[in-house]
Amino acid sequence: MSHRRGARNQIYDSVRQLDDLRMYQLASSSSRTPLITLWTTSWCSTCRAVAPLLKSLIASGIGEAEGGVAYCTVEFDAPDVMAHGLGLTYMITSVPTLLSFDAGEAQTQTKVADARRLADRAFLEEWIRSEARIYIGRRGGEGGSGPTMFGGLFGSWK
Length: 158
Fold this sequence. Notes:
The protein contains seven helices and five strands. The chain has helices at residues 18-30, 45-59, 79-83, 86-89, 115-118, 121-134, 151-154; strands at 10-11, 35-40, 70-75, 97-102, 105-106. The chain has a five-stranded mixed sheet with strand order 1-3-2-4-5, with helices on both faces.
């Protein structure tokens, strides 16, 4: 199944349970779009400023021309998220943290945890577009498979 350019972005509810994150990862993988996650906590004032900005950018269509993205926040301090050690699994060392998933695999090389950058609208717009572009090769479009661990070794997934 080829993913068309200009796909609509998808915004999911906040993740408070491991099953929610897994379901969003599967949905993102099947639609061949990156899943962008913003890791937050209930006590983080910076998170409360960044989350609506990021959500509004994605809702406004940033990244759709490049193939679209899916988005959700992950409530890092939710009991189920903490109990399953998702922060350790995905190397989340501070909040807010922006982390993209490709076919369910965390893209730690493009992870952003710098609060100043996360509050910068222009930076976020370009980051979203860049993450959406990475997946073009995986969708059967032009280019390679992007900066994944094996992308340089095996080329494009077709």
